[in-house]
Amino acid sequence: MDKIDDLEAFLAVVEAGSLTAAARRLGRSLQAVSRSLATLEQSIGVELIRRTTRQSHPTDAGLAFHRRVKPAFDEIVGARLEAASRSAEPSGHLTIGAPVLFGPAQLVPIIARFMERHPRIEISLKLSDRFADLQDDNLDLAVRIGELPDTDLMAKRLGALRRVVFGAPSYFARQGRPDHPDALAGHCCIVRTAGADADTWPFLIDGRHRAVKVTGRFRADSTAATYQAVALGLGIGFTPLWQIRDLVDQGVVDIVLEAFEPPRAPIHVVWPASRLPLAKSRLFIDFLAAELKAERL
């Protein structure tokens, strides 16, 4: 037996609750499992499992060791399988978290292309605008927009999102185009009331971050409603560009104040630092990074 088999025996004993159950799970003899466990404990120099007549309980050292070793063992097993069958189609299940609007509009088309390329991979998508706890929500990966808070998660930057000021040509024909963020004080601005600072828009003016207060006659708590209001010429809006890209391409709205746009909001994919991403996760991360790079965000 090699050291991997010794680790496998230890993990099975912790998870099955006894040497006998572990031997049954692994299809190995009770003596072989006991020998692997003893070999592992001898090499580490500490008792990992406290044996009784009917049950086996991990010691505190055993619990800590299991917590650190289990993710690494899963990765090793995945790497072995991948190396042993390079030509085999990757398979398995991925659970991915994403923001409520970004997920359907941007992520689902990419997931569809990924699943078409890898028909044996299954994906569950969970949508939420809060920074969900990956472990509590059983997420393998999560896509997050904005600066990441201090966290123990691993992350890969996927790109960044433009945030723009926009309006309908009919509105600009009546009211003129603002040439500076301060000029918004003389314009009707469409405010989405769901955010805490909805009536304060960020800009970069003379190299400095500045928040500009805006007002208008129409407000709504729905993103779709604010976009429709802007398209109908009720006023000027502010939003991530990807959400109105179709309206811009169709000429329904125009972008203004481009010279004063705030810094782009970063997009990351994150995963738990306690474990290396499995092969199927790495496959999706690489695919997602390549696909988003080609998008006009």
TrEMBL record:
Residues 1-59 form the HTH lysR-type domain. One of its GO terms (biological process) is DNA-templated transcription. PANTHER family: HTH-TYPE TRANSCRIPTIONAL ACTIVATOR TTDR-RELATED (PTHR30537:SF5), HTH-TYPE TRANSCRIPTIONAL REGULATOR (PTHR30537). This is LysR family transcriptional regulator. SUPFAM superfamilies: Periplasmic binding protein-like II (SSF53850), Winged helix' DNA-binding domain (SSF46785). Keywords: DNA-binding, Transcription, Transcription regulation. It comes from the Bacteria. Pfam families: HTH_1 (PF00126), LysR_substrate (PF03466). One of its GO terms (molecular function) is sequence-specific DNA binding. Gene3D superfamilies: 3.40.190.290, Winged helix-like DNA-binding domain superfamily/Winged helix DNA-binding domain. Belongs to the LysR transcriptional regulatory family. The keyword Transcription applies. Signal peptide: none annotated.
